[in-house]
Amino acid sequence: MSLFDAFRYDGKHVLVVGGATGMGAAAAELALAAGAEVTVLDIAEITVPGVKAVPVDLRDTASIDAALATLGGPVHVVLCCAGVADGTPGIEKTNFLGHRYLLEKLLAADALPRGSAIGFISSAAGLGWERNLDELKEYLAIADLGEASAWAIEHKHADYMWSKQAVCAYVALEALPLLKRGIRINAICPGPTDTPLARANAGTWLGFGAGYRAEAGVEAATPLEQGYPLVFLCSPAASGISGITLITDAGHFAAGNTETWPADTGAVRFLLGKF
Ligand SMILES: NC(=O)c1ccc[n+]([C@@H]2O[C@H](COP(=O)([O-])OP(=O)(O)OC[C@H]3O[C@@H](n4cnc5c(N)ncnc54)[C@H](O)[C@@H]3O)[C@@H](O)[C@H]2O)c1
């Protein structure tokens, strides 16, 4: 035993929701390497070696219920990683509402013991959430998944940016109530990351910040580079951290917001809700 063991996951059961590919798969591999038992839930085929694979469609509460019924024991870390791009039907469910439904089922069943942690993958696209907090609170107050989805569609919010703002607001709003139960909740907000999802939308996703990265001499992040901070935030080493949405974009938003990289100041301030 050493002080550094607080970064490890020995004896923990980790649930990775959306862990078939990309950042979720990287986080699942990291959690395994850190000593955890890992269950991956996904709509796609799960080939990550060493994990228990369970199919789920986050747009369907019956499918989520069926996936949860296979767990049969406590979960110490939930990594909420699934996501789809604009234009995908049910985006509001896949990117947020389905994750929330799953978490609330686990909480209602007392399946997350004290010391547990929840880690979402939000996005730099969700960082302007504070400006919309009143409307986000109205949305988040709708407990039923179907009714919340209908609200999002009716209010023209069934889109990527709103789904990620909802994640950021949920993390901030739930930090206190969850901590009273001994549970922490945080999110990372990645910049462009080289995953199947980003490649499928390469022009908008991987093109964003390309000039900044060329100036800095860095590439788009790897899935592993996003998995590391996500797994850290849910480790005992991060026991003092809850309610944060950590920007994991190699400094792009910091440089844009401060005009250190003025070419992206407008875009960054727009996404931060500063306009
Ligand atoms: N790649 C980027 O540049 C980037 C940047 C910021 C945020 N993100 C976010 O990171 C997260 C991970 O995405 P990624 O880039 O690793 O892409 P990815 O496509 O590799 O991973 C997303 C996973 O979600 C799963 N999924 C999709 N729909 C589902 C559903 N209905 N039910 C269950 N699982 C479903 C997919 O099968 C896939 O395994 C997403 O939330 C995404 O929005 C990505």
Q: What distance lies between the first and last C-alpha atoms, to the nearest angstrom?
A: 50 Å
CATH superfamily, by name, is NAD(P)-binding Rossmann-like Domain
Which radius of gyration do the C-alpha atoms yield? 18 Å
What is the global morphology? globular
Q: Uncertain regions: pLDDT < 50 for 5+ in a row?
A: none
Bound molecules: nicotinamide-adenine-dinucleotide
Number of helices: 12
In the CATH scheme, the class would be Alpha Beta
- The SSE order reads EHEEHEHEHHHEHHHHEHH
**What summary fits the major beta sheet?**
7 strands, parallel
| Total of domains | 1
Beta-strand percent range: 5-15%
The tally of strands reads 7
InterPro entries: NAD(P)-bd_dom_sf (IPR036291), SDR_DHRS6-like (IPR051122), SDR_fam (IPR002347)
Organism: Pseudofrankia asymbiotica
GO molecular function: oxidoreductase activity
Pfam families: adh_short_C2
